[in-house]
Amino acid sequence: MAILEVEHLHKNFERTEVLKDISFSLEKGQVLSIIGSSGSGKTTLLRCLNFLERPDKGVIRVNGETLFDAENPVTTQEAEIRRKRLHFGLVFQSFNLFPQYTALGNVMLAKELLAKAQPDYKARKKEIHAEIEREAKSLLDQMGLSDRMNNYPHQLSGGQCQRVAIARALALKPVILCFDEPTSALDPELTGEVLKVIRGLADQETTMIIVTHEMAFARDVSSHVIFMDDGHILEQGTPERVFEHPEEERTKQFLSRFTRG
After folding, report:
1. Is the dihedral of CA 27, 77, 79, 109 positive or negative?
2. What is the pTM (predicted TM-score) of this model?
3. Helix, strand or coil for residue 236?
4. Which residues contact 206 (CB under 8 A, 6 or more apart)?
5. pLDDT score, position 259
6. CA distances for 79 relative to 85, 110, 195, angstroms
7. Is the pLDDT of residue 62 over 50?
8. How far apart are CA 161 and CA 29, in angstroms?
9. In this protein, which residues make up the domain named ABC transporter (predicted)?
10. Which band of pLDDT confidence, cut at 50, 70 and 90, is reported for residue 260?
């Protein structure tokens, strides 16, 4: 059974239709790369999956559970949305770290806020805090940042900030980890650092959705590729199928920009 099912998703901003009848599925452990020109709807699709934007039509299921159904008012209630958002971890293109917290504090923050809502938090505060800190340190160590845990974002490079953001997204153990152009704000050297981390997560069979302009990386790491154009999924399939044998003329035109010379 698919871990993620998206059916007939639509999203409008006023009179502009940004997502037009989007449907796809994703299996556990797969890496889905979403490619396409700027303005094609890629980021809006990710934001709808994370409920940072609310779709106008369609259904989103994770592990068979209906997280969102535009026709079912219960699934669109804010309390339900907040709970179901935890199924997805999102890494933004510009890090979005809290400047007043260290790298460790950024990774711990969301889990600590959730812990405070638990009925036994006051009685077990020290124990819970110690466990959250232990897990956060382990994630930062996994990101190669064991010597940077007490640094603030302004003391870190862009690549280091993005690795903190990845650790933060992993801290809540999401079902699906999503990346919104995670290297677009980085220079080539720092881009390599971040892509190496994502490649390692793929090797661990982390289920991921990656919006990217790194075509070579998408071809090498992905299980499945979607090409979006003007709010539609114009083409999808294995990396070999989409990159080596695209069927749509628009896909061929887009990919030709990355193969010239």
Report:
1. positive
2. 0.93
3. strand
4. 29, 31, 177
5. 63
6. 10, 17, 35
7. yes
8. 25
9. 4-255
10. low
Q: Name all domains of the chain by residue range, CATH numbers in brackets.
A: 4-256 (3.40.50.300)
pLDDT, tens digit (0-9, with 9 covering 90-100), for 110-124: 999 999 988 999 999
Element (H, E) at 162: helix 158-171
- Helix, strand, or coil here: 79? helix
User: What are the C-alpha distances in Å from 13 to residues 53, 56, 85, 200, 211?
Assistant: 10, 10, 21, 37, 21
Q: Is 234 helix (H, G, I), strand (E, B) or coil?
A: strand
Number of residues assigned to the chain: 261
Higher pLDDT, 59 or 189: 59
Amino acid letter for position 112: E
Q: pLDDT value at position 214?
A: 93
What's the gap between Cα 252 and its chain centre? 26
Q: Are 235 and 24 in contact (CB under 8 A)?
A: no
Which of 174, 210, 205 is closest to 88 using CA atoms?
Answer: 174
Strands 208-211 and 31-35: parallel
